[in-house]
Amino acid sequence: MRSWGRCLDLAGVRGGALRSDYTLAERYLRRREFALRGVVRVLAPPEFQPHAVVGAALLCFTDDICDRGPAEERTARFETWAGHVGAALDTGTSHHPLLRAYLHSAGERGLSRHWADTYLAGTRIDLDFPGFADEGAYQRYIDTLTWPGIMLSTGLTPHLVPDKQFAESCRLVADGAQRADLLTDLSDDLRDGRLALPRSDLARYGVTREDLEQGRDTPGVRNLIAATAATAREALLEADRIVGEVPPEYRALVLSLLGLYHHRLDNVSALGAAVTRRPVRDNPVECVRVLNRARRDSRNESLWENAQDR
User: Fold this and answer.
1) Please, are residues 272 and 222 in contact by the beta-carbon 8 Å criterion?
2) Are 248 and 157 in contact (CB under 8 A)?
3) d(Cα 240, Cα 259) in Å, to the nearest integer?
4) Measured CA angle at 292 (ends 286, 298), to 5 deg
5) Element spanning 37, H or E
6) What phi-psi label fits residue 131: left (phi over 0), alpha (psi between -120 and 50 degrees) or beta?
7) pLDDT, position 24
């Protein structure tokens, strides 16, 4: 693992103030998402690590603003933050170190501000989350919030295909990851009075909201959980195409992130209806296996491509 200072050098982050901005973002992510920060530091090419860190930190920071306290307070905080982000995008500068770092990374990687604008608009809607009436409502949520959010981080990754094609692959990742999150966070959401599974899915399997809130282990609940997990896995398997769309040195990082969501879906399948009663936690030992497998698979793929080129 390269030192953080060397990563900043390789990423072209010059000047003491800007380097300090990136370092503050890295420290925040280390506290907020230690495992994710570790994956980036271990598997991402050193010249990309500062960009990956600041993209992830921006998402986490925005989530923190929106997730704590009564709705009125969360809305007020978010509107203040959205104003800072909008002004930063308009002027190219900011008084906030995280925004200064993100502006630099987005500029270096050529990421359109469309994704930030769309993400902020989607987050504003999500502050008063109404739930999903059906699959169409869920897919609109992906388009307006989850997909733009992923693009703020994953969209910074160098890619070998046109921007539009890469963005469409990122949407597949967003769909699979979001649906997996609906299951892993189901018990916490229900406890907070939030039902994130489409109501049409509940009706299809004869499940009521009370069944979920009471943690009932019924055939309908088990079938609902299994079907949702299967749909999430289908999206993630289709999203595998993104591995071939990034340079070889980035594939271990992409494979590890996809592998992590497959691991979580494995845990969901093992728990079944119990996911309504307790959140799904990552197994640290299995996460290490996921990282090692991603590193090995990316190396084998590169060796195969090199052999074909000879």
Assistant:
1) yes
2) no
3) 10
4) 135
5) helix 34-43
6) left
7) 97
**Phi–psi pair at 60, nearest 5 degrees:** -65, -40
Query: Model-level pTM?
Result: 0.89
Amino acid at 300: N
Map tokens 């299809």 to a residue. Answer: 204
Encoded amino acid at 72, one letter: E
176 touches 186 (CB < 8 A): no
Which region holds residue 54: left if phi is over 0, alpha if psi is between -120 and 50, else beta?
alpha
Q: Which amino acid is at 126?
A: D
Measured in residues, the chain has a length of: 310
Q: Where are the alpha helices (DSSP H) in 44-70?
A: 49-67
CA–CA separation, 133 and 111 (whole Å): 33
CB 143 within 8 A of CB 166: no
Q: Tell me which of 305 and 205 has the higher pLDDT.
A: 205
| Spatial contact of 199 and 131, defined as CB atoms under 8 Å apart | yes
